[in-house]
Amino acid sequence: PNGKHVTIKVWNDTVANLTLMALGSSAPEILLSVIELFGNSFYSGDLGPSTIVGSAAFNLFCISAVCVSAIKDNEVRYIKDMNV
Fold first, then answer.
1. Positive or negative, the Cα torsion across 15, 16, 20, 23?
2. Is 3 left (phi over 0), alpha (psi -120 to 50) or beta?
3. Between helices 47-70 and 13-39, what is the axis angle to 10°?
4. Per-residue pLDDT tens for 9-18?
5. If DSSP codes are grouped into helix, strand and coil, which group holds residue 4?
6. Distance in angstroms (rounded) separating the CA atoms of residues 36 and 75
7. Is this structure's pTM higher than 0.70?
8. What DSSP designation does 73 have?
């Protein structure tokens, strides 16, 4: 109405980056599951679901373990900002 151009941010940068990382790290398992699904006449086989669940559990536990062990014994870290 008054000639001003307003830009509204749709994507949160943190969420977009984390989503891209999650898709990139799970791409082999998803592709393997899709290939198995097409090979079994659209019935789930033993490989697909267990691969995805196993990979997710491994990623969750290993990333958590690395984050916990990376901080030295007498060191304390605080979260300053939680704007996600």
1. positive
2. left
3. 150
4. 777 788 888 8
5. coil
6. 47
7. no
8. T
